[in-house]
Amino acid sequence: MLRPLTRHIWSSTLIQTRSISSKGSKLHKPAAEVLRSRPLPTDSIAVGAHHNLGFLESSQVTTSPSFDPFDMSHASTLRATTQSRDVMQLWSLLEACLCSKYLNRAFSILQSLYMIRSHRPYFIDDYNMYLSSLVEKGSIKAIEELDSILAEHLEKKFPDIEYNDKTLAIMIHNALKFDSENPSTIKSLRTYLKMNMNGVKKIMSNLDVLTFSDFKILYWRLNLIRVSDMPETVKIIVEKQPITTNSKNDVEIDEQHHKDASSSHISNEDSVAHDIAHENLDNASRNNLSTTPESITQVSLDAVSDSLEKDAEKLKAVDTLGMRVVRHTLLGLSLNEHQRKQIAKFHFDAEKNLLNVDQNKSIDFFEIFRSLKSDTERTAFESSLDEFNQDRQRALENRATDAARERWKHDFEEARARGDLSIEKKLNVKLWKWYNSMLPLVKEEVKQCNEAMSGTMPKSKDLSTQEFKQHKARLEYGPYLSLVDPGKMCVITILELLKLNSTGGVIEGMRTARAVIAVGKAIEMEFRSEQLLKSESQVFKDVNRKSHQFKKYVQRAKSSFRSIKIEESKIVWPQSARAKIGSIMISMLIHVGKVNIEGTDPFTKEKVYGEAPAFSHGYQYHNGSKLGVLKIHRSLIHQLNGERLVASVQPQLLPMLVKPRQWKNWKSGGYFYTQSTLVRSKDSPEQIAYLKAVSDAKAIDVVYDGLNVLGETAWTINRNIFNVMSEVWNKGELFLEIPGIQEELNLLPPPPRDADPSIHREWKLKNKELANKFSSNRSVRCDSNYKLEIARAYLGEKFYFPHNLDFRGRAYPLSPHFNHLGNDMSRGLLIFWKGKRLGPQGLKWLKVHLSNLFGFDKASLTERIAFTDRHMKDIKECAISPLGPNRWWMQAEKPWQTLATCMELTEAYKLENPEDFISHQPVHQDGTCNGLQHYAALGGDIEGAAQVNLVPNDVPQDVYSHVAKLVASRLEVAAKKGDEYAKILQDKITRKVVKQTVMTNVYGVTYVGATFQIDKQLSHIFEDRKYSLELSKYLTKHVFAAVRELFQGAHLIQDWLGECAKRVSKSIRLDVDEKSFKNGNKPDFMSSVIWTTPLGLPIVQPYRELSKKQVTTNLQTVFISDPFSVNPINARRQKAGFPPNFIHSLDASHMLLSATECGKHGLDFASVHDSYWTHGCDVDQMNICLREQFIKLHEVDLIERLKNEFDERYKNYVQIARIDKHSELAKKILIVRNKLSESLGRPATLADEIYMEKERVRLMRSTHYDEVERGRQMVSTVSLVEEQEGHEELESKRADMSTMVILVPLKLPSIPPKGEFDVRELRNSKYFFS
Predict the structure, then answer these.
(1) CB burial string 555-570: b at 16+ within 10 A, e below
(2) What's the pLDDT tens digit per position in 769-781?
(3) 8 A C-beta contact, residue 868 and residue 885
């Protein structure tokens, strides 16, 4: 029997106290504790504590002694991250071997993990994975055998390890699985429950181990647990579903009804379910389901889809219980005859209705929803649709690769059956042929890998050198390649390469390194989804068949289960494994992927036909570096730009058909079966560590709340706009931002050979421009095709955009290809699912919205409404016939959104009272240069605040026009003094010329970047590019000077932020070790600029020096980033990035606060950074919310709070400075250095001085009086500087022999004085956002 836990604290002997070494000496107390003993000062840092919002808790977590930052030294960080990398690689290999059933190798990996002492506290989790897999292999037949193995392992193999509650849950599950009625088994169960470490409830909380059958037997049959021991999501189902049979093998559910997630849908229900169905349907008929929406929440649809088809005529009429309930519910609503026929014909099966493919034959859920007359019916309809969509979303995330494959096969067979002469021209037909050619190669490679890992290969001495290398490589990547079905891997590889077309600066191709990693990562993502679905199916397998009446409870339990599993997920495949798997799959696709080509025989002039590789591998130079690239054949590029690609979009990145999983911690939110992290951190373990710390401390709940509001806004496609776009697209002509079809690049003919060199140079430049334009148009057209195809797939659907954050806290949808942050075309296609009555204010704001979209947005609100009223005739004509003679809408700044609003207004005015119109159109409220608004509030800048509409005014202020006038005035003065450039430019300064530079100046645009921005405007006036650039350089200086003059307070803060970043990035921790110093005097600078947003989100600037790892693949050697590396910081980027990133973190905080507040008021809310969207009737309420939240944000002096946080976070840091070597301070320091050198017996270094100061600080903070006295007596070079008043004035910028290097305490500059502007004034500013 497994020994009960001997309750002693063993982990304390395993976790070493972090020591700090310098020249062989160690402090036995952790340095962080020595140097960070006091908490953040709550008096100064939490000014306005009632407006804390999470800042105080979060900042205290990340500056507390228990939190270990990443800036001790490069050497120590390297050691820590190397160990993390080793553990992760062993973890991933262990998982792969267990899933592939290579248990001997898995046990060897376990032993390697056990040897890593720092990993011992977490080792039991690894062992539990092994223990679960041990039984699954089928070699163990009794619980006594498993118990004996476990006892032997923990007593002899891993003696320092104790079981935990999950270990006991595994034993309980398997005891019940073997024989739940055997007396010895029951005795074992009682023992396991008594051995609990944190109560029986903790054992029962392991939902990923214990199944519903386990709970039922433990509770109903054996009476070993109480109701209170079960998790909340489980107890209701178990209580209401008692065991009705005494069969010994009740736990052994008929497996043919519960296949793996990849199996086909089960259409036959058991007799009990049929009885329930008939009873429910009869009741529904009597009571009219439309009046009882509660009943609809119990609809059961657990289908898994394998097809994109949604055509009812092609489907077999086989209904499950859940489908009949859904159909019966919908037919009970007040529908017209056409809608009733649609529903009667429609096959409510998630398996056959993943997404909309043929909009002419598909049901339009949105139109049905709009036609319903009562709230009760709409609620009933949405409840039923949500039930149906739960299963479709499950299918979409887990079965879309199969769906794509079925679509290819369908198109191939259909074309062949018709004898279609153009069969070879269809993209899907090509993909199907590639798939069939590639599949045997992948299967053979998987077979070879299995043989290599099982030891059936010939001995190494019998292999050639090349065969031995291949055998060794298969041992590395083989465990991973065996985890996913070969067919799915083929589909994923094809889809990934099509998606990566024209990325990474490669025209008509992609970078090899990016491609191999993308394919490897996509295969890993598929594996993770499959594992989660498999676990879910296992745990809930005996509930799905019998619990139609408990559907809502089951869904809640499943959601809880998925969250637990995803939150526990900690394993990622190594980049090297991803690269090798990706390269193998791509190599096979290159081998089989062919396209048909035609050409002309140069001699006979006859047409000839043949095949060419669809993909080819080669090299090209990009920005001076040699890159491996994969090129796509041009004929295939043409198809990617023209054909429908709905089966080519990665399913995990599509909009969701149901509300996203709510964010509750840093790695659990968004999609159901795919893990997303709260912050998009690109290979930044530092950012993840800070994020995890504050998430575990529950300090960023306000951030979660805001993201959840964004994710729960329901959308649908504007069918009218889609129809216009489709018509334009199909013509293939240039239309607005959609390029026309251009099959071939037409270059200018070359000039004569004897022409002037300048003419040849001009010819080359013009042809280069033509080539770039051709490539750009193809890329844009392909992107437009993606957007239109996704929109087509979601016609009539209700969908959502899950969101997460970038490292600055800005929110972005997880669906990258199509969302409301896209271009004008994407935004024009989107409307809110829910409609609201316009009312008088909504009608007003809809008119203002149209005026804004058109570009008439600097006038008063009254004038904007009048603008719309004046153009009502144009508006109606455009809405009725968008492509007719009157195309007024195309003159707008945002034409597609303008057309959508024209149609909305036209529909409203068809009613007798347009205010009664139910509107679905989002109405926007945009900030006035939002970055400058935050700067003006930070600095209390009255003049700046007035220019960006923080101050109430009768008309909106236009900061861009104001800057243009200031620049024109400066040029006028310069022209009078004879400045030639000023004379040329003074009458060419417009709002448009300066707008982008003014907007980005506050975000840290460089002089060079601003020059190119202005040149983009001037190049239309001056044809000579070189001359245009010269004028742009000149004008940029004046624009910068004008902005600085107008926003003086903002620029003082901007300069202060930059100086803080400069000093922090050049600072050194006192507990740095000497190994991080090059020759003892040149340290690696490791300190990132880190701050906490008002909502508590820690921001870590990720700008560090890049390091690449070389991985040899069968395509080429690729250099990939190491996700575990923490390198020295890039000081230049740290300084340049901090001012704009800090402002971005504030506008992100304002947006999330506004989202949360709008959600509380029941508003549908969306945002594009500083543009906020809601229904027209709700704009006034939204305006109140966003003004109040801006005031709430800035009532605290955020700059003072930032300074206090920096002082705490970077206290006891030092920096290197230079002083005059002849100064009195220099002489004193030299005396101390000489004494130190004598005691060391060698020349003292900066590392020695740092250690000396570190020791002095330790003694001063000791609790022993004699040590404190010794500390007071010590004199270090740093203490001498601290005693010197005004030592900053002694610092020199010279770096010659007249100066000497010293260490000085890190001291940040004083914050600029704050002006008199009171942020509360903006409550009455109607143009703050408008």
Answers:
(1) bbbbeebbbbbbeeee
(2) 888 888 788 778 8
(3) no
Q: Which residue has the higher pLDDT, 1273 or 296?
A: 1273
Contact (CB, 8 A) for 1115 and 586: yes
Task: Provide the residue type at 681 as one letter.
Answer: S
DSSP alpha helix (H) spans, 749-860: 757-793, 824-828, 839-854
**Catalytic annotation, pick one of 857, 926, 979, 1207:** 926
And the tokens for 902? Answer: 């024209």
**Cβ atoms of residues 1061 and 1134 within 8 Å:** yes
Q: Are strands 1098-1100 and 1108-1112 parallel, antiparallel or unpaired?
A: unpaired
Helix segments in 794-926, DSSP class H: 824-828, 839-854, 861-870, 872-880, 895-908
For the record, the structure tokens of 672 come out as 């159901």
**Is 995 among the residues known to form the active site?**
yes
1199's tokens: 């700059």
Residue 623 neighbours by CB distance under 10 Å: 6
Q: How far is CA 809 from CA 283, 1148, 1247, in A?
A: 51, 6, 37
- Annotated active-site residue 869? The verdict is no
Q: Which of 920, 808, 947, 925 is nearest to 1185 (CA)?
A: 925
CA distance 767 to 752: 16
Q: Within 10 Å of residue 826's Cβ, how many Cβ atoms?
A: 21
How far is 150 from 162, CA to CA, in rounded Å? 11
* DSSP labels, 148-174: HHHHHIIIIISTT----HHHHHHHHHH
Q: Which of 995, 1066, 1135, 1203 is catalytic?
A: 995
pTM over 0.90: no
Residue type, 869: D
Amino acid occupying residue 1035: L
Residue closest to 188 by CA, chosen among 236, 222, 138: 222
Residue 350 pLDDT more than 80?
no
The b-or-e profile of 140-170 (16+ CB within 10 A means b, else e) is: beebbebbeebeebbeeebeebbbbbbbbbb
Q: How many CA atoms lie within 13 A of 244 on its CB side?
A: 4
**Beta bridge pairs of residue 511:** 629
Pairing of strands 1117-1121, 836-837: unpaired
Alpha helices, DSSP H, located in 871-1002: 872-880, 895-908, 930-939, 942-947, 959-976, 980-985, 991-1001
Query: Token match 């993606």: residue?
Result: 786
Extract the tokens encoding 120.
């011992």
Summarize pLDDT for 460-480 with one digit per residue, the tens: 667 777 788 888 888 888 888
Please tell me the distance from the alpha carbon of residue 832 to that of residue 798, in angstroms, as a whole number: 9
Contact 1086, 1155 (CB under 8 A): no
Q: Give the Cα-Cα-Cα angle 875, 991, 926 (nearest 5 degrees).
A: 55
Q: Tokens 């390297």 — which residue?
A: 78
Is residue 988 annotated as a catalytic residue, yes or no? no
Answer for the pair 736, 898: CB distance below 8 angstroms, yes or no. no
| pLDDT digits 0-9 by tens, 971-1002 | 989 998 888 888 888 888 888 899 889 888 87
Report angle CA 765, 768, 769 to the nearest 5 degrees: 90
Q: Which of 824, 941, 1015, 1170 is catalytic?
A: 1170
Q: Note the pLDDT tens digit of each residue in 620-649.
A: 777 677 788 888 887 787 777 655 554 454
| Residue where the block lists tokens 């093998």 | 249
CA distance 434 to 424: 12
* Per-residue exposure over 764-796, b if at least 16 CB sit within 10 Å of its own CB, e if not: eeebeeeeeebbebbbbbbbbbbbbbbbbbbbb
Residue found under tokens 């509650």: 165
pLDDT computed for residue 276 by the predictor: 31
State how far the Cα of 848 lies from the Cα of 279, in Å rounded to an integer: 54
Closest alpha carbon to 1087 in 1144, 1126, 1059, 1048: 1126
Q: Where are the beta strands (DSSP E) in 236-287?
A: none
